[in-house]
Write a structure and sequence with these properties.
The protein contains four helices and nine strands. The chain has one domain (about 10-105): RNA polymerase II/Efflux pump adaptor protein, barrel-sandwich hybrid domain (OB fold (Dihydrolipoamide Acetyltransferase, E2P)), CATH 2.40.50.100. The mean pLDDT is about 95. Helices cover about 20% and strands about 35% of the residues. A hairpin with a 2-residue loop joins strand 2 (about 15-20) and strand 3. It has helices at about 30-35, 80-85, 90, 115-125; strands at about 10, 15-20, 20-25, 40, 50, 55-60, 65-70, 75-80, 100-105. With about 120 residues, it is an alpha+beta fold.
């Protein structure tokens, strides 16, 4: 299981990487493995400002549909357009080509409340 040390994690299996006041996020390797083959990612919140823990989109796998939750508050400034044609990128490379959104954080200190890689490993083991 791939759990990069440089990322932060949520109990809902999202990952976050921060660059200044921008956070890029997606779902973890563990989450994509649990979901199975991902067939569709729907994110229609670009340009919207959402609170932490609000739903920013959904991810559809062969067996189920799951909500995607904001790990931090902020404005959704970019959606990974590549997922429209290739949702399987979330399965193949969840931390690279399978990222989902970029958020301009309204409160960067919220990142401090997210899980470290070590804490996330403990959560899923």
């Amino acid at each position: 299981m791939n759990i990069p040390e440089n990322l932060k994690y949520t109990k809902d299996h999202e990952w976050v990487v921060v660059d200044g006041d921008t956070a890029t996020l997606g779902i973890t390797d563990f989450a994509q493995g649990e979901l199975g083959d991902i067939v569709f990612v729907e994110i229609e919140t670009e340009g919207e400002t959402l609170d932490k823990e609000e739903v920013f989109g959904t991810i559809e796998a062969v067996k189920t549909v799951s909500d995607l939750y904001m790990p931090v508050s902020g404005e959704v400034i970019e959606v990974n357009a590549g997922l429209e044609d290739k949702p399987e990128l979330v399965n193949q490379e969840p931390y690279d080509g399978g990222w989902m959104i970029k958020v301009k954080m309204s409160d960067p200190s919220e990142v401090d409340s997210l899980l470290s890689a070590e804490d996330y490993k403990a959560l899923i083991s």
